[in-house]
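Per your request, structure below.
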């Protein structure tokens, strides 16, 4: 048995991590590969941290393509071979003419959830503009959505399986920059990296829209360090690179922004 209470100490996403621990125990007991539902980036980050101390099991997250945010995780005993092909996923195309009634990520997700499915069974949604969207789901949902997803906003849609290789992935745009700041406060570094005023950044932080390493941070004065990943809902991500102290005792920070 795994040291459950010890592993869950200080965990934010307690329910989902507890489920993964249950599944890990099942994998150890049965010598089978066990699959989780889709986990969000904060859950995945916490899961990696919790399981990094364990040698009995191995975890392989996969969401259908390398940059996928939501991923299922294959769990197996350390002695067993494990590869991405064992993470069962299906890609679907939701096709319709959205030229006169454009739909967002939220619209497609809302329409899918409106059929009665739960969020944990769905992975990333790739919006294709006026042609519809592509979505990654657990295999058992493919036929159900094909029959039950009839409309997104005012637009009639048809849902059909496609190969994962047909996913139209947009590589994130990357911008390298350097800033010199008096401190390593979150509001100072993030405002420089995202190119907005410090007061606007404080608004985002106060609203709970800012995460550091996928944990919500509501203190503008929080200190950042090299290797931190700062994400703002709807604005992309910022990676903190090398930090050096200048002769005037200020901080020169290398940043990479992903848009």
């Amino acid at each position: 048995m795994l040291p459950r209470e010890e592993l869950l100490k200080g965990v934010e996403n307690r329910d989902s991590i507890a489920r993964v621990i249950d599944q890990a125990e099942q994998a150890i007991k049965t010598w089978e590969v066990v699959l989780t539902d889709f986990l969000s980036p904060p859950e995945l980050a916490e899961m990696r941290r919790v399981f990094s101390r364990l040698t009995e099991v191995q975890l392989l997250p996969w969401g259908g393509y390398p940059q996928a945010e939501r991923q299922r995780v294959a769990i197996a005993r350390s002695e067993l071979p494990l590869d991405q092909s064992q993470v069962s996923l299906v890609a679907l195309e939701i096709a319709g003419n959205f030229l006169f009634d454009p739909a967002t990520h939220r619209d497609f997700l809302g329409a899918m959830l409106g059929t009665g499915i739960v969020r944990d069974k769905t992975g990333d949604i790739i919006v294709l503009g006026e042609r519809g969207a592509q979505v990654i789901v657990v295999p058992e949902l493919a036929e159900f959505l094909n029959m039950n997803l009839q409309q997104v906003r005012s637009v009639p849609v048809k849902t059909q399986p496609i190969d994962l290789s047909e996913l139209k992935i947009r590589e994130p745009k990357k911008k390298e920059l350097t800033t010199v700041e008096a401190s390593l406060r979150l509001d100072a570094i993030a405002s420089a990296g995202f190119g907005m005023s410090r007061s606007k950044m404080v608004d985002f932080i106060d609203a709970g829209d800012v995460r550091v390493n996928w944990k919500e941070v509501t203190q503008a004065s929080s200190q950042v360090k090299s290797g931190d990943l700062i994400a703002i809902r709807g604005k992309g991500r910022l990676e903190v690179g090398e930090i050096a102290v200048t002769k005037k005792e200020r901080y020169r920070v290398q940043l990479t922004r992903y848009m």
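The radius of gyration is 21 Å.

Regards,
D.
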